[in-house]
Amino acid sequence: MKTGESGNSAGCLGAGDTVVTAEDRRWAADVRAAVFCAASLLVLLHLVDLAAGTLDGLRSGLWTALAALLFSVLFPSRVTAGRHWIAVRGLLGERRVSTDLLTQVGRRDGIRPRIVLRDVWGARVEVELETLTANPLLWHELDTGARRARADGLLSSGSAVLQSLARRIESDTAREVFEASGLR
Known about the structure:
Strand content: 15-25%
Shape: elongated
Oligomer: single chain
Number of helices: 5
Mean pLDDT: 87
Radius of gyration: 20 Å
Distance between the termini: 51 Å
Strand order of the largest sheet: 1-2-3-4
Largest sheet: 4 strands, antiparallel
Helix content: 40-55%
Low-confidence stretches: 1-11
Number of strands: 7
């Protein structure tokens, strides 16, 4: 087992530190959406082939494989966090970093911007910014650990990325509070 891929990062987490205190609240809905899209494609392709009279076992297998490929592309990563750690679990396994031992924080822009976290053990995870902004408890766990890493002198780069993200999350939260209270 490689460091940071699964379980404890080289024993840096104690038994009590594996308790999940925050998770992506949208994950279950995103999984349902992925299943719905893949199943819809599967049914639609079978119906079109059936209407054309060309449906056979080989074509049905091809459509099933195509739907499975779509599901694997759409399947969302599950982000969880606990005291001093954040983990991202996808179809191929879990990656985890110790947030209080972060050494680098970076940002990857693209279709879905991500924040890249590295710890002293060499573990690396990527978390979508949208996931952090939509889940204040996840952000709190990351921010708390990053503050500790910064205070301990471990966080060598990425403070500006975290400060920018903090301003964005605070702004979004304030906007939501105003909208909920009708003070817009």
